[in-house]
Amino acid sequence: MEDLLIFLQQLINGISLGSIYALIALGYTMVYGIIKLINFAHGDIYMVGAYVGFFAITKLNMSFIPALLTSMVLCSILGIIIERMAYKPLRNATRIAALITAIGVSLLLEYGGMLIVTPQPRAFPEVFPQTKISFFEGKVYMTNQQLVIFAVTLILMVLLQFIVYKTKTGKAMRAVSFDKDAALLMGININNTISATFAIGSALAAAAGVLVGIYYTSISPLMGIIPGLKAFVAAVLGGIGIIPGAVVGGFLMGIIEALVSGYGASTWRDAVAFGILILILIIKPSGIFGANIREKV
Amino acid sequence: MKLSKKVALILVLAFLVTIAGGCGGSKPAPAPAPAPAPEKPKEILIGANFELSGNVATFGISAVNAIEMAFAEINAGGGVNGIPLKLVKVDNKSDTGEATNVATKLITQDKVVALLGPVTSTNVLGAVPVATQYKVPLITPTGTNPKITVDDSGKTREWAFRTCFIDPFQGFVGANFAINTLKAKTAAIFIEKNSDYAKGLAEVFEKTFTEKGGKIVAKEYFVTEDKDFRATLTKIKAANPDVLYVPSYYEQDGLIAKQARELGYTKPIVGADGWDSEKLLQIAGAKALQEVYFTNHYSPQDTDPKLVKFVENYKAKYGSVPDALAALGYDAAYILADAIKRAGAPEPAKIKDALAATKGFVGVTGSVSIDDKHNPVKGAVIITFDKDGKQIFKEKVNP
After folding, report:
1. Which residues of chain B have pLDDT under 70?
2. Of A61, A104, A117, A173, which is least packed with CB atoms within 10 Å of its CB?
3. Conformation bin of residue B361: beta by default, left when phi > 0, alpha when psi is -120 to 50
4. A-chain residues within 8 Å CB-CB of B277?
5. A162-171 pLDDT tens trace
6. Most A CBs within 10 Å: which of B230, B236, B240, B253, as the mutation test of the A interface?
């Protein structure tokens, strides 16, 4: 019984960690799905989102929801600017050139951020008070923040599915993803569609940033690197380009990490997580949800 | 290899300084007075090599403020053996190379008889070779790295001293506190794997705790970049330790305390001086800091009359409560003055011998005796938190 409760606690730990990976992975997977670019700057937009939220709350005295929305709006604008300035000129260049540019943008945001907000970590204010929920006579614990993050992740996933499959913009996105030139011939404005993709992806990252700020209470300019990488792994794990895949991949990563630290050795955690990525890529290169499409030769 | 590089660097610097000095000499300015008869010198020059700008500027400024205050007090009381002390203050910009340059300048150009500072271990290590080369004693108020006073082969560095305890000592104090005051029989240690500071403290804690009959029931690791410790903390909680030892810096410490409490761990958490930051409360929240104790150099709430007076004077002069760096700087200044007094003459070699012979000097951070490794044997304080998360003085531990 005792062991079962510990396992349950580890599962909760894993899911709450996984929610964050999933939230970031959604943005990765969307951008990749449309323009086949691994946007390495995504993790750093998440950082910018956390800082915008921080300043909105501390300097402008906003409450949680307005701060979250401000952060999402500003980051979607940032996403569009990055796309227009850094990626658009390279749209017909090789994919490796675009990838390297993405890494460059990522470094620019990290160290530019350091210059502006100083490298010292900042303490995120507690905008909604934390309450602890305990089960089984205080053997298993959960907080309301964990529930909020979990709920927000699921809501955003559903919303994203809706946008992509039920709206005109979504239809345009899918068309661009399928065949850019044909979409152009059908009268779809490719530039606007890609911008919309970046705007939505960056808004998701910003939401994740603010939630993480509240959850971990500490933010710093390099906070996006590790979660960004893990979320990327999660997106690949679930099948990159597939929206539910990113969420499932995120949860899986979180749970695997929690179980490895909880039952194996805490130092092995990242090795195992990335080991799984390699394994998945060997066995099923397109990820868990990915269809096995043979590329035409 | 590393050492020889450093030596080479110093030689080059020394060479440059000699040239610079030569140029200066040809100008009329500081006329190299033909050694006046060994009369009583007008003042005793002490070099201050501190971080007055750069990333640890607040540390350096605190220490220098307190040193200036100490010197003013000493001079108001007639100086040392009737000669006033004069502080020559130079900024090393929180940079190790600059700390080396400043030490060279202070010794060769300003002709100081002793050096105070820098505050951080790395910068002190940059200045120690210069002090050794020119045979001038150096005292760091706060450099905690054991290597500052002992070289790689285990030999004591003749000219380097410190007035704070070294890192491992805190592990020792923490373990004794856990056993004696908290009556802990079992402990868990949570170690930052890529921090020498944390590893050093954890090692001594474990050794002391087991020697005193305690048992380590869990030993887990994390890396600096980690933010989510819940999985490992769940594992630690399941091992049911009486006390959790976390010797890291405040960002991780705060997150660990917060998450441990969220998971229902209510027993004491013990840490070290890395917990001492205003940010800690913002990160962890007051609720998570209940039953948290950490070892530190000093507490401004200590009721020792000497300390109370120091805190009052410092507040009156600089408008803020002195931190540990200020208290240690203040003691370093007095220990140096005491040594110069006992040396009889303000000559570097005599001051060094007197410093090494310091016994039972009573300062604001406790009683200090310098041991044969040039480390002070002194007490530590245990600090805990009240309901609002404000630091409160718990007890004083003497070695």
Report:
1. 1-40, 399
2. A61
3. beta
4. none
5. 988 999 989 9
6. B230
